[in-house]
Each structure stands twice: as structure tokens, then as C-alpha cells.
Design brief:
Layout lengths: L40 H24 L19
Length: 83
């Protein structure tokens, strides 16, 4: 289980609640997790799962086209490539 999906993870504890309600229409749960101050635990999990699914699809398309990042902001290489 990924940390944001674990209801018992510290990042989902009440210490992150901000005193407001979740921004999802009709939701009456307290907002605030370590990953967002806008959503309750349930809706944050749904949101993060959607993001992860989208990123996984992008990764698959990149791998299918053999697109490999060759350097980041600090010039580091990825995928074990060496300069």
C-alpha cells in the first residue's frame, strides 16, 4: 500500500486537517492530508490514484517510443545511461 492510501499513515492523521471541509461537492469530511490541504482522505486517494494512472500511461507511451530523459536540472542521467 502506498502511504497516501493508508488511512493509518501519519500523513493522513488529523494533525493535517485544516479546519475546513473537503472541496468535493457535498463532502462533509475534514480536509487536509500531507499530500493536499484541499481534500479529505477518501477524495485525496481518488485524486492521487488518477494522477498515478495518468503518469503510468505517459511512461508506457514514452517507453514504447524509446524516449529516455538524458539529463535533469542538475545534469544527472536517468535509466542508468552515462554521459
Amino acid at each position: 500500500m502506498i502511504a497516501y492510501q493508508d488511512p493509518n499513515h501519519e500523513g493522513n492523521s488529523p494533525k493535517h486537517h485544516n479546519g475546513k471541509l473537503c472541496i468535493e461537492k457535498g463532502c462533509q469530511n475534514p480536509a487536509g492530508t500531507a499530500w493536499s490541504h484541499l481534500w479529505c482522505f477518501k477524495h485525496n486517494v481518488e485524486r492521487m490514484d488518477r494522477i498515478n494512472k495518468s503518469l503510468a500511461a505517459i511512461e508506457l507511451r514514452m517507453l514504447a517510443k524509446d524516449i529516455r530523459p538524458t539529463g535533469g536540472a542538475c545534469g544527472q542521467t536517468f535509466f542508468g545511461d552515462e554521459e
